[in-house]
Design a protein that fits this description.
5 helices; Mor_transcription_activator; YraL-like; Mor transcription activator family protein; rod-shaped; c-mor_Regulatory_Protein; mainly alpha
Length: 90
């Protein structure tokens, strides 16, 4: 998210109307629903986490214990179980 100067992008009449409600304060204008991006869409985070989870699942299937996976990936055993359960359903 970046800040834009209102006077650079909005007509003076609209700025005058907005100033009646918010004078000199910061306001957040959310994206339209159809323009929203879900978590990880701007970066590769979503794909990286998915790849990590596939690796965890693969290692679990090859015999590595949940405890060892939790230690290796710095995750709780419960989180490892969630990853395994989710990928097991797919």
């Amino acid at each position: 998210m970046s800040y834009k100067k209102a006077s650079d992008i909005l007509p003076k009449e609209l700025i005058d109307i907005i100033q009646k409600y918010v004078d000199g304060e910061y306001i957040y204008i959310p994206r339209k629903e159809d323009n929203r991006k879900s978590w990880g869409d701007k970066t590769r985070s979503k794909n990286e986490v998915y790849e990590r989870n596939l690796t965890i699942y693969s290692k679990y299937k090859s015999g590595i214990s949940v405890k060892k996976l939790a230690e290796t990936y710095y995750l709780s055993p419960n989180w490892i179980h969630r990853i395994i359960s989710k990928l097991n359903r797919e």
